[in-house]
Amino acid sequence: MADTSDLRNGLIIKFKNGLYVVTEFQHVKPGKGGAFVRTMLKNLKTGKVLDNTFRSGESLDVVRVQRKKYQFLYKEANGFVLMDNDTYDQITVPAEIIGDASQYLKESTELDILLDDKEEIITVEPPIFVELTVTSTEPGFKGDTATNVLKPATMDTGAIISVPLFVNEGDILKIDTRTGAYVERIKK
């Protein structure tokens, strides 16, 4: 059992019947009263951020996790087939564990999987940015640049995102998998 002196960014703890990663923490020693620790905790399943205060010395239930690299091979009806980069073992991960980022995955994309001490999957972390090719979009009209006008574009994975008017079919775009937003056009 650990306590608040062991807190650090990236530490995973069991808290309120869920697994949370510490994203920020601050030890506070006020003039009156006991010291405490302010934390920002992110739920690994839902992604929601929780602001919590622990008393100094309070015990925490730390979860030991293992991070492994897996490669996305293909999609099946019951989930996504991933391959361990070290042992070449294949596993099937349900789509709800990967979440919304699954629509931006192409074959051979590398993912990080967090496993607990029982080798059960805690969460799957896709790469933050991916490069996708535009397969179809409407042509932009010349002179329609007075405002930040966006148009829909279908990517090679089937995802539909909003892009600026200057983007054409065949362009390679950098996409943020957390928000599904266009970041930049990649030069060929």
Structure write-up:
The protein is an all-beta fold. The protein has three domains: 2-62, SH3 type barrels; 66-125, Nucleic acid-binding proteins (OB fold (Dihydrolipoamide Acetyltransferase, E2P), Beta Barrel), CATH 2.40.50.140; 129-186, OB fold (Dihydrolipoamide Acetyltransferase, E2P) (Beta Barrel), CATH 2.40.50.140. It is 2% helix and 53% strand. It has one helix and 16 strands. Strands 1-6-2-3-4-5 form a six-stranded antiparallel beta sheet, with no helix packed on it. Strands 9-8-7-10-11 form a five-stranded antiparallel beta sheet. A hairpin with a 2-residue loop joins strand 2 (12-15) and strand 3. The N and C termini lie far apart (53 Å).
List the helices and strands and how they pair.
Layout: E1 2-3, E2 12-15, E3 18-28, E4 36-43, E5 49-55, E6 59-62, E7 66-76, E8 79-84, E9 90-93, H1 95-98, E10 110-115, E11 121-125, E12 129-137, E13 150-155, E14 160-164, E15 172-176, E16 181-186
Antiparallel strand pairs: 1-6, 2-3, 2-6, 3-4, 4-5, 7-8, 7-10, 8-9, 10-11, 12-13, 12-15, 13-14, 15-16
CATH topology of the largest domain: SH3 type barrels
CATH domain class of the largest domain: Mainly Beta
Strands of the largest sheet, in order across it? 1-6-2-3-4-5
User: So how many helices?
Assistant: 1
Query: Based on DSSP secondary structure assignment, what is the total number of beta strands?
Result: 16
Given helix and strand content, the structural type is mainly beta
Query: What oligomeric state best describes the polypeptide chains here?
Result: single chain
CATH architecture label name of the largest domain: Roll
Quick check: average pLDDT?
86
* Outline: flat
Percentage of residues assigned to helices: under 10%
Main beta sheet: strand number and arrangement?
A: 6 strands, antiparallel
